[in-house]
Description:
Chain A is an alpha/beta fold and 366 residues long. Chain A has helices at 32-48, 69-80, 100-108, 123-128, 135-147, 166-178, 196-200, 207-223, 242-248, 275-278, 292-303, 312-319, 323-336, 351-355, 357-364, and strands spanning 8-13, 15-16, 28-29, 54-61, 83-93, 113-119, 152-159, 183-188, 227-230, 233-235, 254-256, 261-263, 267-271, 284-289, 310-311, 340-343, 346-349. Chain A is 41% helix and 23% strand. Chain A is globular. Chain B has 603 residues and is α+β, with helices and mostly antiparallel strands.
Amino acid sequence: MTLPKPDSLYVHIPFCTHICPYCDFAKVLYRPEWAKAYLKWLKEEAAQRDCGLFSTLFVGGGTPSALSEEELEDLLSFLSKHLKEGGEFSLEANPESLSESKIALLRKYGVNRVSLGAQSSVPASLKTLGRNHDFALVAERVRQLRDAGITNISLDWMYGFPSQSEEDLRQDIDAFLSLKVPHLSAYSLILEPGTSYAVKGVKPLSDDMQQSYFETLRDALAQEGYERYEVSNFALSGYRCRHNLTYWKDLPYIGIGVGAAGYLGESRYTNTRSLGLYLEGRYEEEVEHLDESSLLEDYFLTNLRLTEGFKESDFKQRFGFSFSSRYQERFDRLSSRGLLEQKQGSIRTTSRGLDLLDTVLLELFD
Amino acid sequence: MSFNPKFIRNFSIIAHIDHGKSTLADRILELTGTVEKREMKDQLLDSMDLERERGITIKLNAVTISYKAKDGNEYIFNLIDTPGHVDFTYEVSRSLAACEGALLVVDATQGVQAQTLANVYLAIDNDLEILPVINKVDLPSAQPEFVKDEIENRVGIDCSSACLVSAKTGLGVDEVLERIVTDIPAPSGSVDNPLQALIFDSYYDSYRGVIVMIRVKEGSVKVGDTIHLMQANKDYLVTEVGIRTPSELRTDSLSAGEVGYLAAQIKDIHDVHPGETITLRDAPAKEALPGYRRINPMVYCGLYPVDSKEYGALKDALEKLSLNDASLLWEPETSQALGFGFRCGFLGLLHMDVVQERLEREYRLNLILTAPSVIYHVKLTNGEEIAIDNPSRLPDLSTIAAIEEPYVKADIMAPKEYVGPIMELCQEKRGTYRDLVYFDDTRVILTYDLPLSEIIFDFFDRLKSYTKGYASLDYELSDYRKGELCKLDILLNGQQIDALSSIVYRPSAYHRGLAIVSRLKKIIPRQQFEVPVQAAIGGKVIARADIKSMRKDVLAKCYGGDISRKKKLLEKQKEGKKRKNAIGSVQVPQEAFMAVLSIDDDE
């Protein structure tokens, strides 16, 4: 039951220059005095959490690129010391807040993967999503990143938001594919409580529409050689996000910053979402100790998001008993409905099972 | 020792819902000092919470009031309350039989309603002196003269000296008290005759057994007497008698003319029916009091626990409820779809509602109710005759010679401009027109013979909506008639669901079948697979709708910070799922079982 030490670090930067109406991550509008104090406490937390060297670093947000060059340099120089040789160092950025000089900083401190919030190529869609860039800028940033030698680029892509037509979707498919980035994350719009969308009563497209949009998108990507390796993530061969795979393989990780979460094998912690509290050094809000049934739930919840599922041998090594000894009956039920399958010693969801993952999980949960 | 009957007045209050019966009763209690104002809960007579919430009286209550009249004498008033709903007509008639008079309370802004009229006629049948009381005269829209005319012309009661009151403010209520003394006759009957006491209500007390509310007509009864129930043919030893003021006050005896309670270690409330006559075993009366009827439930439905583990708890709760409710009948039944439960009989839909709510509220049970059904009399080809209270038990069509269904005589009162729509509705509901009389210049009473099953099938709601709420309805069971009926079965995913079967009028079966399947399609959530919903008669499918399979049920984003939250959401969903009922592999929500009843016009 012993898990390795955390080998991944997530760093949350809660600042944005603009708040998107659908986002429910911990975020605030950027203010330089907050950003400075924040970076100080971030380092403090890293020290207290005993951060050593990691194989993957992921700076997410919020909008990490919203930091000023000086702040960004401060952060990256600090983080780069925690990266193992050959490690993956990812950073999320918005096209409008990124710049050539910031890209130069990324390169200087070893950031080797950038995830750009592109969302859509259709001006009307971008407006609906409350984004104030255009797709030309996305293309521009992709070019600049490549010029700087950062070729491992991912684009965030949204579909199924109100008023999106099928034509809009096709246009997005063409535009996103034209950039030939090796990684794409395509999310259907989720209305999270408390977001501006939810408060305004915005309705996303129906589940049926979203699903048929998704299938269109998925099939188009498959034709271009992108493999769907997770519910919403697609990559060309060799470009899966190693950091995110940590989550989905249910391996331990450390998270620092406002609203960040960490998983230490036997427990999960979640930091406060309040910047005010964080800036007083009171970063940790909740620790959940995990019993066996919780650990099992987490294992399925994460691993079954991956198209490759999990190896039965890994499961047995992790929990000390075989998957079939406890779950055979449930597996049979799900398998007879075409939702779960066993292949080459792995348990994995079928394509339909992935679309209905919650149903699968409800069946597996005790 | 007994009170001189000369100074006793026994009366009821007859009123339509909301016309102010309870408020007037409260004012009377308050003015006579029976209950201190500060002790008054609003509308004391309606003691169940549910009654108070719905503004209706379900269980009867009686209270003894002492009143010092202007003539200097001390009078005893017994105010006997009556339930104001069509389900309880027989109980009303028994309470009225315990009285010599009744206050007819009519809202000065609304006039006489059909329900009131029905009860007034019951009172007249019981030879009661009726004292008209026009209430709410303080409201700007009050038309007391108009309402008086209406009562005079239509009910035939002299209204020249009707009391004009506002029960809310207390205006005119003292006058009502005096008029009770002067207008309502003192009870007749003699202490020297053999005992005849009328039971008009009963309730269960865990220490003393069933407590019966009685009106002594002749003779007297005291502690230590052995009484004989003339209909039930049972004897009991009287352990306690007394009056309610409204709290219980023990007395030595109850004599001719008096109203009070009696305890006699009666274990089972089902042995004591309203209308029963109590006499003494050793000095019996020659005959029972008139008017007794054994009342039978008119409406049946299946009651099932959502969680089969609650079966025992449901049984306990039904046992407890029926301690106090002689009209509630139940027996175990098994449904393939719903498992173990009970078939329960009720006086009517309101009674059913009340029982359901009490089970859910007071006993915290999660219930599935099947759609209510009436009792059908089925004649088999072999000459046998059976009664069917559960549609799924209807035998194979080939063995049936005829099906008879209960009919009611329904009186609908409404403003005359709605006659057209009401007739249309009654026709659609297979009614036979009987009569139309003008109640006054503006209102008519339409009389129809209607199948009871049509009345429980959203009749009242539609009547209300067709008449903008102005119509009122009163009905009583008349007879059984042969009908062109058949069983409509519902199949989910190819599997027949017994709890969804209903007996329908054959010519409208197709329409009904279509309505039910499209309704179920709306109610039943999407499953992981396509679920055909079919309506069938005798194995032949007549309507079909398909519940499309669920296509998407996954959270798009799940990164490190989302895992805990996501897990909690799933756990919540899992809990919710346990509360739904799985039939085969189809999750069917509770309301689906009522779908055969609540069908919109446009479906």
